[in-house]
Amino acid sequence: MFLTLELLSSLKWRVHFLDIYGIVYNHIAFLWSEIISLVVDIASRTAIGQGCARPAGIMECETATHELEVCNFVDNVKNFKFISGDKIVHRLHGSELTRDYFERTAFSSPVLVEQPEGLGIVVPPNITASDIERFIGPTREFDILDVASQTEICMTLMEWIKYFQSQDRKRVLNALSLEYTDTELEKLITAPTAVREMDWLRLYWPKDLPDDPCYQKPKFGKYCLMSTKGSFTDFHFDVAGTSVWHYVYSGEKFFYLIPPTNGNIDKLFSWFSRKNFSFLSDLVPECYVVHLTAGNSLFMPTGWIHAVYTPQDSIIFQDNFLQRYSIGLQIRLRVGKINDYRISYHYPAEVVTWYAAQGLLKEFTEHWSNSTVPPKYLLEGVKEMIPYLKDWIATKEDLKVHLNLASPSQTLECVIDKFSEYLRQWISPV
Question: What is the pLDDT of residues 253-265, one digit of tens each?
Fold first, then answer.
């Protein structure tokens, strides 16, 4: 038991006559994982029972020895003083979440809507885990997060549902990457009107692209999250700098939110790159807690750093989307290459941004024709976008494929020149 996994691995090559090595190695690795999972479960229950409202998260670990750091996380969060999310989260009725609201606020703070009425969402009643398996397909393979190690393992949906419905779970697992675009489930769920009116993929992806895999619309953004009791994700922001709509279909969640200030983002990048075993919430000025229950919707703007704890089995429907209110931050976070736990998914954010740029240019042209000026957030966002568009011309191969379809008046160079001309009239030179 005191042999490290690394030592066992080296023995494999030195002791060729041990035919049973593979069996022994796998059993020891599995036993070690089971021990760590048990420690996490006991420690988490103890911390929550003593009033801890914080997820028992750990940094990304590379070895079984590092996995033991999970105990440090629990020990350090018992007495952490979270600030009530009411100080930064806007609570609205669904009917108040309109385009006018987002134009006034530039979607700068999270929004909590307690009931689905007025949001324009459609979600089937009484849906079960077995229904989800049937609607998506039992053979779908996707990545599951092992909570103890914060590493991913691959399972089929049939295997996952069997685990999720089991009462005898030996490990705490968390399903965060089950995307359901182009499945029967997608036909049954409609995102809020506000999301559909903001999402660049929905708004700007052309419908007349060639019938070729190179031009296929990304299957991205529509997720069914299935989290087991005691699971968590550590601090991160969502993939590709996207904003998020979370709908708690069943169960409950605790979200721990850190505003995306430049200082906080710098701390996140530094903390992540060093795989630092300190706690990010101890390194920033404030960290807020929001408790979500069944029926709640949380709209999270771009870049909000968050950790999540699940006190009971939960099913969440979620949409990730790029939008107009945080263009600069979306791009900066994308360039920073710190994503959430769905790190294996490649989202062509540059291509989506290119098509959005064409749509925004038409909007700028309309403003110019009407002698009006676009809102300040949009002017600043487009100004920050232009240098990245110039860089992407030379560096992004998937974008080059789409640029080949552009007409002479809609090349990336022409789009940049037109934006620059408008911006010179409205704000400082680009």
Answer: 999 999 999 999 9
